[in-house]
Amino acid sequence: MKKLSLVLAVAAATLAAPAAHAAFVNGGFSIGGAFQNQAALTNLPTSMVSLLTSFDVNAGMIGSGGTGAFATVQFPTVGTATDFSRLVAPQTVFSIIGYTFQVLSWGPVVSGAMSCVTLQCTDALSFTGFGVVTGNAATPTAFTMSWSAQGTCNESVDILGQCAPLAGSASYSASISATGVAVVPEPASLALVGLALAGAGLVSRRRKA
């Protein structure tokens, strides 16, 4: 029984080790930025952002409204954005004040088709992301992200309902919240627990033998 307890204790201690020397991240903030250029809006002239799956954004972004661990993120705090695809995970999306945000999975997409009123057209796209924030000696912490993009263009005078040539532009915004809890264990960590339990079973069987 002592050996069984020892095996389980080692597995538990290994999974909990990061939390023993650092605190979780807790807090939130907002960011905003622009797309690299019109060439990034690959579905013009009938869509600016509503059909995008990859996002070619400017490296610079602006943070604001920071709370908790992100209290220093007050307008205009500059961060670094990374081009990303919502079809790929894991993927680093941005960093700010020493923290790096990596998305591990993407949520549902809400797409707003292009509509035109008084010679101006707009469309939209939004989705969520779930991942891990690291940095500043903190324990890797789960975070959620609500990301949205907005496209605007002048309507073509020749073909109504689509953008005029060289008229499209887009921007994005996002809100981020670190939940102050651990990320779901990685497969390697789960495998460690499996090995520990297998070892525990072996010890138990030997005692019965």
Could you list some keywords that capture this structure?
disordered C terminus, 2 helices, alpha+beta, 209 residues, eight-stranded antiparallel beta barrel, 18% helix
Summarize the structure in short.
The chain is α+β, with helices and mostly antiparallel strands.
What is this structure's SSE topology?
Elements: H1 2-16, E1 26-34, E2 54-55, E3 60-64, E4 77-81, E5 84-85, E6 91-96, E7 99-117, E8 120-134, E9 141-154, E10 169-182, H2 187-208
Antiparallel strand pairs: 1-3, 1-10, 2-5, 3-4, 4-6, 6-7, 7-8, 8-9, 9-10
Helix pairs in contact: 1-2
What does this structure look like?
The chain is α+β, with helices and mostly antiparallel strands. The protein has one domain (21-200). Helices cover 18% and strands 44% of the residues. It has 2 helices and 10 strands, in the order H-E-E-E-E-E-E-E-E-E-E-H. It has helices at residues 2-16, 187-208, and strands at residues 26-34, 54-55, 60-64, 77-81, 84-85, 91-96, 99-117, 120-134, 141-154, 169-182. An 8-stranded antiparallel β-barrel has the order 1-3-4-6-7-8-9-10. It has a two-stranded antiparallel sheet with strand order 2-5. Helix 1 runs antiparallel to helix 2 (187-208). The longest helix is centred in the C-terminal third of the chain and has 22 residues, at 187-208.
C-alpha termini separation? 14 Å
Regions with little confidence, pLDDT below 50 for 5+ residues: 2-21, 188-208
> Element order, helices and strands?
HEEEEEEEEEEH
**Radius of gyration over all CA atoms, rounded:** 23 Å
Give helix % range: 10-25%
- What structural class do you assign from the helix and strand content? alpha+beta
Q: Number of domains in the coordinates? A: 1
Largest β sheet strand count, sense and barrel closure? 8 strands, antiparallel, barrel
Strand order of the largest sheet: 1-3-4-6-7-8-9-10
Beta-strand fraction estimate: 35-45%
**Mean pLDDT, all residues:** 84
